[in-house]
Amino acid sequence: MLTFIPTPIGNPADITIRAMRLFEEAELFLCEDTRNTKHLMTLLQERYGMQKPQASYLSFHEHNGKERLMQIATDLKEKKVVFVSDAGMPVISDPGQLLVDHCQKEGVSYDVLPGANAALTAFVASGFSGGEFCFVGFLPQKGKDRAAALQKAMSQEYPAILYEAPHRMLRLLEEITAIEPNKELFLAKELTKKYQKYYRNEAKILFEQFKEENIRGEWVVILQANGEKPLFSSLDEIMALDITPKEKAKLMSQMSGKSVKECYDEVISLSKIN
């Protein structure tokens, strides 16, 4: 039996009770990186009282997935096996699809637990309209493939969700700015972690801003749908609305990428002036 189990994308408290029970019972872990998985198991034992799994750990990633499948084919049928990525939902931007395909073809029982997902978390936070989106994941790292993939993402009729590493973040903003400087973007940094932060603005503005920032952590980047326009284009439009200061602050936060608290203080300050 194989179970795909999501792991926290940042805060370990986001693990589920069901996931911990299955970790305790597991006989074999298939991991994107065994060191990261073992570290997570230690945290869960120390902080949340999970029993230490009496299990073996094997790496399973894009470079060894096919070879590893040949080694563990019998284990998948006879043992309690779990597959985890380093963070988030298995199979999303990792090689777990090989395992799903194998289970379906070979009649191996498998299950998938619900859990943390960076793309959905960021999309909810973005404020972009509608419930439809296009998930892209990581772009190719260089060359014509990267340029073509980015161009395709930017022309989608729905918001496109990308993942990006910190050392390529400024480059991505530069590439987007070169194609469409006024493209509205939402950026989510280090989701669920201590230094989580949201940004929302035009690509050209974010590019200039990030030239001066120390870019760290993992990022989710959401490109506004092609043709979609912001509901409000200026602070004055929001201030003129007949709604509460708190509601104005939420709208300002979505437009500017600032925190709701910062925007609330600004709304109160402007209200006193007017």
In short:
By secondary structure, the protein is of the alpha/beta class. The chain contains 11 helices and 10 strands.
Provide the fold topology.
Layout: E1 2-4, H1 17-25, E2 28-31, H2 34-48, E3 56-59, H3 65-78, E4 81-84, H4 97-106, E5 110-112, H5 118-126, E6 134-138, H6 143-154, E7 160-164, H7 166-179, E8 184-189, E9 197-202, H8 203-210, E10 219-223, H9 235-239, H10 245-256, H11 260-273
Parallel strand pairs: 1-4, 1-5, 2-3, 2-4, 6-7
Antiparallel strand pairs: 7-10, 8-9, 8-10
Helix pairs in contact: 3-4, 7-8, 10-11
Number of domains: 3
- CATH homologous superfamily identity of the largest domain: Tetrapyrrole methylase, N-terminal domain
* Proportion of residues in extended strands: 15-25%
Q: Counting H and I runs of at least 4 residues, what is the number of helices? A: 11
Q: Average pLDDT, to the nearest integer?
A: 91
Uncertain stretches: none
> Which sequence of SSEs, written as H and E, runs from N to C?
EHEHEHEHEHEHEHEEHEHHH
Give me the secondary-structure category.
alpha/beta
Strand order of the largest sheet: 3-2-4-1-5
Detailed description of the structure:
It is a single chain. The chain is an alpha/beta fold and 274 residues long. The protein has 3 domains: 2-112, Cobalt-precorrin-4 Transmethylase, domain 1, CATH 3.40.1010; 118-223, Tetrapyrrole methylase, C-terminal domain (Methyltransferase, Cobalt-precorrin-4 Transmethylase, Domain 2, 2-Layer Sandwich), CATH 3.30.950; 235-273, no CATH class. The chain contains 11 helices and 10 strands. It has helices at residues 17-25, 34-48, 65-78, 97-106, 118-126, 143-154, 166-179, 203-210, 235-239, 245-256, 260-273, and strands spanning 2-4, 28-31, 56-59, 81-84, 110-112, 134-138, 160-164, 184-189, 197-202, 219-223. The strands form 2 sheets. A 5-stranded parallel beta sheet has the order 3-2-4-1-5, with helices on both faces. A 5-stranded mixed beta sheet has the order 6-7-10-8-9. α7 (166-179) packs antiparallel against α8 (203-210) and α10 crosses α11 (260-273). The radius of gyration is 22 Å and the shape is globular.
